[in-house]
Amino acid sequence: MLSRDDSPAPSTDAALGHALLRLAVGMNFALHSFQRWRDVGKFADGVVRDFANTPLPEWSVRSFAWLIPFWEPIVGVLLVLGLWTRGALVAGGLLMVLLTFGTAMRGEFGPLGTQLVYSLAFFALLVTLRHDRFSLDGFLRRGSRS
Asked: In 3D, which of 143, 145, 135, 142 has the Cα closest to residue 87?
């Protein structure tokens, strides 16, 4: 639907903006763990070393370190596809909360800014979820109305 000035309708712009941000965040998450998959044990050992001077027990750090390389790409692929988007956004947001907690526990305040940007992206996507048209979820919703 075009308005008088031939620009897309605001709802189309919002849907397109939502889709582009969802794709960007999803791609980042989907591809982020590939390096870690080469040797998940080595990655987990490195994370345990990084947390050696925190009060967190080693078993909890190691368990979480083994989970990250699988959690990130699942969230990412779901976001790229736009499938179960709300759940993927909540899972990604929760991952960011846990990563932020761990980073703050280590006193690594530089990466916290980046983690906050990701958290804001998850927030923006969740708040604008009503504009989720260009996705498998959107396709399935339109198909169920027919």
From this structure: 135
Nearest-angstrom CA–CA distance, 12 and 145: 19
Look up residue 78 and give its two tokens: 């779901």
CA angle 14, 25, 72 (to 5 degrees): 145
Tokens of 55: 């009060």
For the entire predicted model, the pTM comes to 0.89
Distance (Å, rounded) from C-alpha 76 to C-alpha 133? 18
Question: Which parts of the chain sit beneath pLDDT 50?
Answer: 1
Q: Where are the domains of the chain?
A: 15-139
* Residues in Cβ contact with 15 at an 8 Å cutoff, skipping those fewer than 6 apart: 131, 132, 133, 134
